[in-house]
Design a protein that fits this description.
This protein is of the alpha/beta class. It has 2 domains: 6-58 and 329-437, Aspartate Aminotransferase, domain 1 (Alpha-Beta Complex); 60-324, Aspartate Aminotransferase, domain 2 (3-Layer(aba) Sandwich). Helix content is 39%, strand content 16%. It has 13 helices and 15 strands. It has helices at 6-12, 48-51, 60-72, 83-95, 109-124, 141-146, 150-156, 183-201, 227-237, 290-299, 311-344, 386-396, 420-437; strands spanning 27-31, 34-37, 42-45, 102-106, 128-132, 165-168, 206-211, 241-245, 269-272, 284-288, 352-358, 361-366, 399-400, 402-403, 409-412. The strands form 3 sheets. A 7-stranded mixed β-sheet has the order 4-10-9-8-7-5-6, with helices on both faces. A 4-stranded mixed β-sheet has the order 1-2-3-13. Strands 11-12-15-14 form a 4-stranded antiparallel β-sheet, with helices on one face. A hairpin with a 2-residue loop joins strand 1 (27-31) and strand 2 (34-37). Helix 3 runs antiparallel to helix 11, helix 11 packs across helix 13 (420-437) and helix 12 (386-396) packs across helix 13. The termini are far apart. The mean pLDDT is 92.
């Protein structure tokens, strides 16, 4: 039987995720910041595919580590120890903030967040977890209940709902219920609001607060100064655990090893995925401090996943950390400053309402100059979305960028190996795309 062509595969059964009726780009090769489609056309990958190929495409040190591990022992049950698994756990402990030093491996970010919540509930003997509106923590049933994005949550809860999650508002100034005039006032109002929610939910019923250090697909929102410290203090006051969702923000994305490092706060648990292997092999996990780890070891863990901590993935993770340490985290910090400078030039467009972010994770929001509202808010109205048109126009100009949640904004997140020349080419193309649409 002849081997099927790529087109035959697409026609016969491969269903893309987040699928719509639009044409789906078929990518077949990649090198550094650039990917190539099946026609040989090149694109700057300023989405790192899904904010995960942090080391860039075609990094041979990671490929070699994968090959070597597969040649030694390709799989070890997740209930057993393995040298690659133990080495990666130690390496993660060496770069994690504070006393976070024990790693429970998983497969995806959704599952890592579910595991962290399960551990928090068992440790505190409380059931509720507070997460932000406009957040994204995954699309499995448990993780979707934590997600504040109604598009994801409603899709998963259409037929069955999970319980134990409550929502609060993120510390954002634009299109939010807060009326602060300064970042300090915004930090105070948002933290007071969180404490208000805790009071009304009942502190003794709350196991954890789960947040991304910098908003991911919700818009690359950095919190105002002192907000995270106030959240840490509130959690300590009410004996609530603080979980940092670092699925997107981890492994150099925001200019430090973890996004929470930019806030000088240590969470009680930290979840990771995506960049841990630069997405070369699926891997995720939860990092805890010694007290929670001791509790888990004493009480036991009755659930697990076949592919959690897969040795090939762990070998890729060790190699990826070596690659990041070899200048890529520093480059993300330095290039992040230049990316910010270039993106802020887009403010010259009347349609650009806000530019925000940190490191190599940035959001560009579009708003009507006269009203300050989105041109189209896909969560509350239907119609042609000009943000989709900007994404398409950028792709036509050789640059791949993502849409945020809600899709009133773009998310820009290139691989950590990006250069100033790459940034110039991408932002120039985005500038032209905005001109063409608006």
């Amino acid at each position: 039987m002849a081997n099927p062509s790529p087109d035959a595969e697409l026609d016969s059964g491969a269903i893309p995720h987040w699928y719509s009726d639009d044409d789906v780009l078929s990518l077949v090769d990649g090198d550094g910041v650039t990917v190539y489609d099946d026609d040989g056309d090149a694109y700057l990958d300023f989405n790192s595919q899904l904010y995960c190929v942090n080391a860039g495409h075609g990094e041979e040190r990671i490929v070699d580590a994968i090959t070597a591990q597969a040649s030694t022992i390709a799989y070890v049950a997740s209930s057993k120890h393995n040298d690659a698994r133990s080495e990666l756990a130690g390496r993660i402990a060496g770069i994690a903030p504070g006393d976070l030093s024990n790693v429970f491996f998983s497969v995806s970010g959704s599952e890592a967040n579910e595991a962290a919540v399960q551990f928090a509930r068992e440790y505190t003997d409380a059931r509720k977890v507070l997460t932000r509106y406009r957040s994204y923590h995954g699309a499995t049933y448990g993780a979707a209940s934590l997600t504040g994005d109604p598009e994801t949550r409603n899709a998963m809860e259409r037929y069955v709902a999970t319980t134990g999650a409550a929502k609060f508002c993120p510390p954002v100034a634009h299109q939010s219920p807060f009326d602060a005039d300064t970042p300090a006032e915004l930090a105070r109002q948002a933290a007071d609001h969180l404490e208000y929610v805790i009071h009304n939910e009942g502190p003794d019923t709350i196991a954890a607060v789960l947040m991304e250090p910098i908003g991911g697909t919700s818009g690359a929102y950095p919190a105002p100064a002192d907000y995270w410290q106030r959240v840490r203090d509130i959690c300590d006051e009410y004996d609530i655990l603080l979980i940092a969702d670092e699925v997107i923000t981890g492994f150099g994305r925001c200019g430090e090893w973890f996004g929470i490092d930019t806030e000088d706060v240590v969470p009680d648990l930290l979840t990771f995925a995506k960049g841990v292997t630069s997405a070369y092999v699926p891997l995720a996990g939860v990092v805890t401090g010694p007290d929670i780890a001791a509790h888990l070891r004493d009480t036991g863990i009755d659930v697990g996943q076949t592919f959690a901590g897969h040795p090939v993935a762990c070998a890729a993770g060790v190699a990826a950390i070596d690659v990041y340490a070899d200048g890529l985290v520093d480059n993300a910090r330095e290039r992040g400053d230049y990316l910010e400078t270039r993106l802020r030039e887009l403010d010259a467009h009347d349609a650009v309402g806000d530019v925000r972010g940190r490191g190599l994770l940035w959001g560009v929001e579009f708003t009507d100059l006269e009203t300050g509202d989105p041109f189209l808010h896909p969560w509350v109205e239907s119609g042609d979305n000009p943000v989709d048109d900007v994404i398409d126009a950028a792709q036509e100009r050789g640059v791949l960028i993502g849409g945020g949640r809600p899709r009133t904004q773009l998310i820009i997140a290139p691989p950590l190996a990006v250069t100033d020349a790459d940034i110039d080419q991408a932002v120039d193309a985005l500038d032209d795309a905005i001109d063409a649409v608006f």
